[in-house]
Amino acid sequence: MSRLNANLLLLLAGAVWGMGFVAQSTAMDDLGPWTFTAAKFALATLSVLPFALRESGRAKSPLPRGAPAGFAAIGVMLFLAAILQQIGIVTTSVTNAGFLTGLYVVFTPFLALVILRHRAHWVVWPSAIAAFGGIVLLGGGSVSALNSGDILMIVCAVFWALQILLVGIFAGPSGRPYTLSVVQFAVTTALAALGALILEAPSLASLFAAWPEIVYGGVFASGLAFTLQIIGQRYTTAPQAAIFLSSEALFAALFGVILLGERIAALGLLGCALIFAAMLAVELVPMYRRRPAGPAELPTPHENR
């Protein structure tokens, strides 16, 4: 897959996630955050499991050593990010949730540099700042006094960034995107279900009341979007992936206009333009600057510049 097609998959994942914020918020009218998270990812596990079994049956070699542990670690990061986001959305606005979660676009290249010593193409840094600036403008240009939900959103953004980094490490070498998806979903389901049993009192009536949100969150926002992320990240870099995935805030605003009749202020339109410019920059600038590789600088099979 070309880097362009991979980034388009990540863009589609961002679109699906953007509409998912509405489902996450409205589901809290009937369910607790732990129950909703467990139900959503249980459905995500079931929706991807047939593809994972088919993938394993066609595999010509076993999983690389360390891949199962890596998949489980990705699941833990996904769980921490998802449950903090879901708890936080109870006490903050959907708008604040969208652009505070978008902080991962800044955290990802920073953590890649600190933890992995990976130096991103120079255009990623101004693009990351521009994308986050666009997210802020999309939210109105300011953040109201931070409450506990806002703080949880900022913390969850760190775990989203770590999840993106780990997917970048294990998705390519393993060659099992569906298996990775199933494992991370199953880990998240198990941990969230344990919390629901301890902290909440889930009932069939409450689950049925929130079934549209659970279906969208499980099949589309989780099963489809996270699998698109894993497939796409096999052919692009983690910092670039963060830029394209951050478009979820842009799509959240667009779906608000289309489905809910909301309006985007002039400041928000400027934010949309900044996000779009950032995505174009990370895609086009490396192509413009690329030189033919000489004998001493042939790229590795998974190298993206």
Folded structure, characterized:
By secondary structure, the protein is mostly helical. The chain is 76% helix and 0% strand. The protein is built from 13 helices and no strands. The protein has helices at 3-27, 33-58, 67-88, 94-101, 104-116, 124-138, 148-174, 177-199, 204-209, 211-233, 238-245, 248-260, 266-289. α4 crosses α7 (148-174) and α6 (124-138) packs parallel to α11 (238-245). The model is unreliable at 291-305 (pLDDT under 50).
Topology:
Elements lengths: L2 H25 L5 H26 L8 H22 L5 H8 L2 H13 L7 H15 L9 H27 L2 H23 L4 H6 L1 H23 L4 H8 L2 H13 L5 H24 L16
Helix pairs in contact: 1-10, 1-11, 1-12, 2-3, 2-8, 2-10, 3-7, 3-8, 4-6, 4-7, 5-7, 5-11, 6-11, 6-13, 7-11, 8-10
Q: How do the helices and strands follow one another from N- to C-terminus?
A: HHHHHHHHHHHHH
Overall SS class: mainly alpha
Spans of at least 5 consecutive residues with low confidence: 291-305
The biggest sheet, with number of strands, parallel, antiparallel or mixed sense and barrel status, is: none
Rounded to the nearest angstrom, the distance between the terminal CA atoms is: 15 Å
Helix proportion: over 70%
Beta fraction: under 5%
Total strand segments: 0
Based on Cα principal axes, name the global outline.
globular
- Mean of all residue-level pLDDT scores: 81
Radius of gyration: 19 Å
- Number of discrete helical segments: 13
